[in-house]
Every structure is written in C-alpha cells, then in structure tokens.
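Hello,

Our lab assistant flagged a job as stuck in the queue for most of the afternoon. It eventually completed. Since we weren't sure the result was trustworthy after the delay, we are filing this so someone can double-check. Below is the sequence as submitted and the structure that was eventually returned. Let us know if re-running is recommended.
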Amino acid sequence: MKTAIFLVTALAASAALAQPQPGAPPRSAPAGARMLDPNQTICRSQSVVGSRLTRARVCVTRQQWLEQQQRDRLLAEQAQTRRMWCGGGVCPTG
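-- returned structure --
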C-alpha cells in the first residue's frame, strides 16, 4: 500500500514539474536547430508479428510516426495504471 501511495505521489510531482510555469516564455528550439518537416516520409524496418526473421518496411510521414509513438505511450501508461490499481491485472472490465 505504501508503494502505491509513493508511486501516485511521485507521478503527481513529476507531472507538476513538467508543466510550464505561468508567465514563462515558451521554450523554443536551440539555436542552429532546423525545423523538421512533418510531411517528410520516413521508412523504418519493423518486425512482423509471429515471425522471428521476417521484417516489413513501413513508410509513413514524420507526423504519423509521432502520432503512433504518442498512442503507444498512452496505451502503455493505461496498461500500467490498470495493473497497479487492479491488484496484478485482475480487474472487472468496464
């Protein structure tokens, strides 16, 4: 129980620290950094589910890769939260 309280407190504190301070100017890119084109097509080689050797080449825009990364992160956070609060993954569905 103490571990769960500690984790919730730590998560809340880290979320509060990650928020920009009111009245602070927004952070900009470092000097010399170039803006990346969100419409640029980027290809990556990914493993095929169910095979150890087969790989597929996936080509999508930079923006689509970013959106996929955000969805994956959200799903991972939701799975971890569900497991933590449901006693090892035994949760009523709902």
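-- support follow-up --
The delay was a queue issue, not a problem with the job. The result is valid. The radius of gyration is 20 Å. The chain has a mean pLDDT of 74.
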